[in-house]
Fold:
Amino acid sequence: MAKATKSNADINHAPAAKTVGAAPRTFRTSIDLKPNVRSSCIALLNARLADSFDLYSQLKQAHWNVKGMDFIQLHELFDEVAERTLVYVDDIAERAIELGGYATGTARMAGASSSLPEYPTAATNGQEHLTAVVERMALYGKHVRQCIDEADDLGDKDTADLFTEISRAVDKDLWFLEAHLQA
Structure:
């Protein structure tokens, strides 16, 4: 018996998802933070979730497309940083859920909400990829540090701590990447 599948016509005419810009879903939780604190932190978390997932995909773009004399070392370095970034994706999404939120973490949601610039498709050699990755890592780190202060000001020490942990790791990865650009 053949399994029923959607035809291309069905897929192409499906209604668009309405998640970006929609009011965030929330769920009941016994965490003792006020609803407005949880809601604000969920928004912070989802903003960084979009950036984290976008950063991960941009690191993979560099990993796949780097060329030149430093190919193997950069190919491996970009992949290692991408693996660490993928951990942030999961940790951030899970924290949003813990607070009673809804993680907006599909590739399309991330692309629509990311604050990072698009990856330059003209980049081919190691220097070009390193420059692009360093710029994005630095911007990502800046946004994460801002979230530390915002979560702390809201009174959510645990979310601030998560962002602090991510910030330290991003700074270390940025050091590894920038070392390749320094004389």
About this structure: Confidence is low (pLDDT under 50) at residues 1-20. The first helix runs from residue 8 to 12. The chain has one domain: 33-179. The helical segments are 8-12, 35-65, 71-98, 107-113, 126-154, 157-179.
